[in-house]
């Protein structure tokens, strides 16, 4: 997942880039809204994290310009402005979420997951990899015309892998994306769910979709 970070504080900007990259994201950064618009024009971004108080074009002006272009990329405002009026103004301007500094990084990750799931659901409920089709609204899975019964955790894991096709996710990234820091599931349990999925998704098919990258993690390849 590719994320655009707009933050004029260089220390915080670099910290966000480092931690988001470590969490499996591809990150581009800018120090103001105008440069952010230029980067956004390149395409491929699935979410934007933007400060409000920036020189030149501030965060709200950036947001207004983004929405004027009918761009539906999710935007999370990350700002020190904590008044209720500021929050209402930010959300009414088209922001998908609003986080007040200082903040917990785990909360930011959860908000990114929330807004990207929400936006993906609005665009299309279908997730596809080869002849495998998942319906995220009905929570059904079909491969080659054959319905496959999945548990809730199996479905969520498979949907995550398909949303990140051809990208290798570590066990830790999978745990964080699906279950958060309060869930009791451990990274070893991911291996178990992968085995369950392989039996249901790949057994009996010449083309295997779920792949292990030894020492790194798992990926779905078409």
Features:
single chain, 222 residues, alpha/beta, Arc Repressor Mutant, subunit A, 2 domains, five-stranded parallel sheet, 8 helices, 22% strand
Could you write a compact summary of the structure shown?
By secondary structure, the protein is an alpha/beta fold. The chain has eight helices and twelve strands.
Indicate the proportion of strand residues. Answer: 15-25%
Give the C-alpha Rg. 19 Å
CATH class value of the largest domain:
Alpha Beta
SS field, number of helical segments: 8
Can you write the helix and strand succession as a string?
EHEHEHEHEHEEEEHEHHEE
User: Could you say which structural class the secondary elements and strand pairing correspond to?
Assistant: alpha/beta
Q: Identify low-pLDDT runs.
A: none
User: Distance between termini?
Assistant: 18 Å
The gross shape turns out to be elongated
CATH architecture of the largest domain: 3-Layer(aba) Sandwich
Sheet with the most strands? 5 strands, parallel
Indicate how many domains the architecture comprises: 2
Helix percent reads 40-55%
Which strand order do you get reading across the main beta sheet? Answer: 2-1-3-4-5
Tell how many strands the DSSP assignment holds: 12
CATH superfamily of the largest domain: Response regulator
**Overall pLDDT confidence:** 87
What is the CATH fold-level name of the largest domain? Rossmann fold
């Amino acid at each position: 997942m590719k994320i655009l970070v707009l933050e004029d504080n260089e220390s915080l900007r670099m910290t966000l880039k480092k931690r988001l990259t470590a969490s499996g994201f591809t990150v581009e950064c800018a120090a103001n809204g105008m440069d952010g618009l230029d980067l956004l024009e390149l395409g491929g971004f699935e979410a934007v994290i933007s400060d409000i108080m920036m020189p030149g074009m501030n965060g709200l002006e950036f947001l207004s310009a983004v929405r004027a272009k009918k761009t539906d990329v999710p935007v999370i405002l990350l700002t020190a402005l904590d008044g209720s009026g500021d929050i209402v103004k930010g959300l009414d301007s088209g922001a998908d979420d609003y986080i007040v500094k200082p903040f917990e990084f785990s909360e930011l990750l959860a908000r990114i997951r929330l807004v990207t799931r929400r936006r993906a659901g609005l665009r299309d409920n279908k997730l596809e990899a080869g002849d495998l089709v998942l319906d995220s609204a009905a929570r059904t899975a079909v491969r080659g015309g054959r319905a496959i019964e999945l548990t809730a955790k199996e479905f969520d894991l498979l949907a995550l892998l398909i949303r990140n096709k051809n990208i290798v996710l570590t066990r830790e990234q999978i745990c964080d994306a699906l279950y958060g820091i309060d869930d009791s599931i451990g990274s070893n349990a991911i291996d178990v769910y992968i085995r369950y999925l392989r039996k249901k998704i790949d057994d009996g098919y010449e083309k295997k979709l779920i792949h292990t990258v030894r020492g790194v993690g798992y990926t779905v390849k078409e």
